[in-house]
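Hi support team,

I've been running sequence recovery on a batch of backbones for a student project. Most finish fine, but this one hangs at about 90% for roughly twenty minutes before it completes. I'm not sure whether the input is malformed or the queue is just slow. I've pasted the structure tokens below so you can try to reproduce it. Let me know if you need the job ID as well.

Thanks,
M.K.
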């Protein structure tokens, strides 16, 4: 059993909150009123973009529990726009959201990884 209960309280000083506030730079791909997309600083595929809401949500659970309908819609619209803009819709892509300690989440601000640009292979090694 996991020791961590999700969702966790939001830390306003996490690195993505600082990107939203413009305190640290990011290589922006696209944005709208409620979400931002930027290149991952440590790419794991030829295309590796992070999409985040502007609002203070720790993870997928807190986002889906507390975000408004317009925030949720604009978040997923931005995911689609990035996939089309970077031509990931031509050959496919992978979408990942790490959640909590078992999920390996490093930055406690909800985000999805959009990965593509090559054949990505199996999702995880077999058990
Ligand atoms: P996760 O493990 O799902 O929390 O992933 C966090 C991701 O954020 C990692 O892939 C990092 O490489 C990425 N990352 C951390 N700091 C930055 C930054 N300043 N700009 C862009 N990506 C970052």
């Amino acid at each position: 059993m996991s020791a961590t209960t999700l969702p966790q309280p939001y830390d306003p000083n996490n690195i993505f909150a600082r990107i939203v506030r413009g305190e640290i730079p990011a290589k922006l791909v696209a944005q709208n009123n409620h979400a931002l997309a930027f290149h991952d600083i440590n790419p794991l595929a030829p295309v590796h973009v992070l999409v985040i809401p502007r609002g203070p949500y720790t993870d997928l659970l807190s986002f889906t529990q507390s975000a408004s309908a317009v925030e949720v819609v604009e978040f997923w619209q931005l995911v689609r726009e990035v996939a089309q803009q970077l031509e990931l819709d031509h050959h496919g892509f992978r979408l990942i959201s790490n959640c909590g300690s078992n999920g390996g989440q490093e930055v406690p601000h909800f985000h999805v990884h959009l990965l593509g640009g090559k054949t990505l292979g199996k999702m995880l090694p077999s058990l």
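--
Follow-up from support: It reproduced on our side and the slowdown came from queue contention, not your input. The pocket of adenosine monophosphate is lined by residues 15, 26, 38, 40-42, 50, 98, 104-107 (CB under 6 Å). No action needed from you.
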